[in-house]
Amino acid sequence: LESEVKIMLTDRLYFHNSFAILKSHINTYQFLGKDIGNRAPAHAPEFSSHAALEYKGDDGFFIRLEHNYTHDFYYEDQYDFQSDPYQIINSSIGYSYKKIKISTWIRNLLDERYVKRSYHFAVEPTPNQPEEPFKSKSYFSFGDLRQFGVTISYGM
What we know:
Blueprint: E1 2-8, E2 13-21, E3 29-31, E4 34-36, E5 47-56, E6 61-70, E7 86-97, E8 100-107, E9 115-125, E10 134-142, E11 147-154
Antiparallel strand pairs: 1-2, 2-5, 3-4, 5-6, 6-7, 7-8, 8-11, 9-10
């Protein structure tokens, strides 16, 4: 189930919202001699949302504040490791005149540290343990930390 809405609160103030509810399932199957599955698939959060409040002045000035939320999800189908839910706040402020738009922005305003992807596998040798020649370990890829930027665009 997905929904997206844009509401004009006043002639200059807008509220944007989108959300998704995902109910998905993978059946049980064999992986390396082990029954796995019977749960949600990897990278399929049950709930995610985006909300924004935006002000657009008559003189071309604008400001926008966004909130993004992602519920927890499994990193891989064959392992039970899950992410933590996370929230990201973004903001922008700028000026628009005819076809030119200039904005400054901050992504991940609160400098949230969150894992976007994780892998779990055995790649590190353990020579002193012949019964388990490789150590199983998790590896993480993190989302971007706080970023600042300026965007100048020209519309045709």
